[in-house]
Specification:
It is a single chain. This protein is mainly α and 208 residues long. Helix content is 40%, strand content 0%. Helix 3 runs parallel beside helix 5, helix 3 runs parallel beside helix 7 and helix 5 packs across helix 6. It is globular, with a radius of gyration of 18 Å.
């Protein structure tokens, strides 16, 4: 039993190391029966976490709220942008930017990305919709109109109604839960972001 446990522990560590390195293998903290299992396993824009000593854990924390800095880098990776990671001096007019996100924030400024708050706080659904439209630069096949969002009972409180309409029209994001709302201002957890960005990847591939 001891040898088996040691072998299993070694295999888990190897799997964790590989997940952290390439971001595309099976993360250990995702339930295979979960609705987000496939999108998160395919999420090459995410990397596994690390413990306090920097050792890879192989976990991706699907239920954790996504910081704006994390969501930004994940989206920029999805769009195939370059010069978004590494060491940069921050030149963008953004607040709460972790040092590791300086390059990504600078790149976002080139696309006139609008941040709804500090980058070290959680991103919400409205701004993620807004970012996708800005990064896509008119390449999304369907322009959104109020017709696409008239069924949501909270659309009037969204900060980016035009962008929300566009992402709904292109089937990138849908309603929030079962209450008839779109989820204006609601934070995105990592599983939701992975699902959205996988849809964006598929859509951009189809429209090339």
């Amino acid at each position: 039993v001891t040898n088996f446990e040691q072998t299993l522990a070694a295999a888990e560590k190897k799997n964790g190391d590989e997940c952290y390195r390439v971001g595309g293998c099976r993360f250990r903290d995702i339930d295979p029966s979960a609705w987000y299992y496939a999108p998160m396993q395919a999420a090459t824009f995410f990397k596994g976490g690390a413990d306090a000593n920097g050792n890879p854990t192989g976990n991706v924390e699907p239920g954790r709220q996504t910081l704006r800095a994390e969501a930004l880098i994940a989206m920029e990776r999805t769009m195939g942008l370059t010069d978004i990671e590494g060491t940069c001096a921050l030149t963008a007019a953004a607040k709460g930017v972790p040092e590791w996100a300086n390059c990504a924030a600078n790149k976002a400024a080139e696309y006139k990305i609008n941040f709804y708050g500090p980058l070290n706080q959680a991103a919400n659904r409205d701004e993620v919709a807004d970012w996708m439209v800005s990064f896509a630069g008119g390449k999304l096949p369907v322009d959104g109109t109020k017709e696409f969002t008239k069924g949501f009972n909270d659309i009037g409180s969204c900060q980016a109604q035009g962008s929300v309409s566009t992402v709904v029209a292109n089937k990138l994001m849908t309603g929030y839960g079962t209450g008839g709302s779109w989820g204006c201002g609601k934070p995105l957890v990592r599983a939701e972001l992975a699902t959205v960005l996988n849809r964006l990847t598929d859509l951009m591939t189809l429209t090339k």
